[in-house]
Amino acid sequence: YLQQIVPAISGYHQDRHFPSLALPHIRGGDSDQNEHRVIHEEVIYNNWRKLINRRVQLPSGGTADFEIVSQGDRGGTVSDEAVLVFVWNTQSKTAVLVREYMPSMDRFQNGLAAGMVEDKHDDEDGEAVETAARHELEEECRLTGGIWYRLCSPTVMDKYSTTRLSVYLVLDPDPIHEDDAKPRDETEQGMEVIDGISASQLESSISSGEMTVVGAWAAYLALGKLRELGEID
What we know:
Layout: H1 2-9, E1 12-13, E2 37-46, E3 49-57, E4 63-71, E5 78-89, E6 94-102, E7 107-111, E8 113-118, H2 128-141, E9 143-144, E10 147-150, E11 155-156, E12 164-171, E13 174-175, E14 192-197, H3 199-207, H4 213-228
Parallel strand pairs: 1-10, 5-12
Antiparallel strand pairs: 2-3, 3-4, 5-6, 5-8, 6-7, 6-14, 9-13, 10-12, 11-12
Helix pairs in contact: 3-4
């Protein structure tokens, strides 16, 4: 979808291949890291999130139980993938953030446009992840189009989560009228769009704890790409 439409309209750069980190020296581990074996799994909770008890046989022969978090089934409409979108204005050299309610903290915090990849994002080109990113940009930031960069291969946020995250940078998207934009979820009531955030202000927001770890990680990926593009020093 993006590969066909965006290049003709506003340019699209999808960096699909990312180099792996070379590890010159590893301390304190065995050379064979594939001796862990999952021997049992059981879903112990399944609602908005799913909690799985995973029993693993260790290289020593012993076993350990881990509780793994994934996305709940929700009727089969949601995948175990999520997207984050960082918006940058090349004229003002500023970012666009969203400020929304964080239920875990019971307060509003800054973040990026983000959301889950759902069945409704599937298209004939099989680009559901990119489609989800475009939808989140429109729903949460009221923006569309722009020049897109995929910043990483999908990865999980920690060792106890299975949800894979993909991060995008979009340059100079166009505003869309509130009445024409895709509707936000009911749980996103009170969400605000914050324009005009400089790179230094963004880093201050991160270091002061005003963004989540995942949002901060995605923002730093975007800042790195912006430096590569010559947008910031």
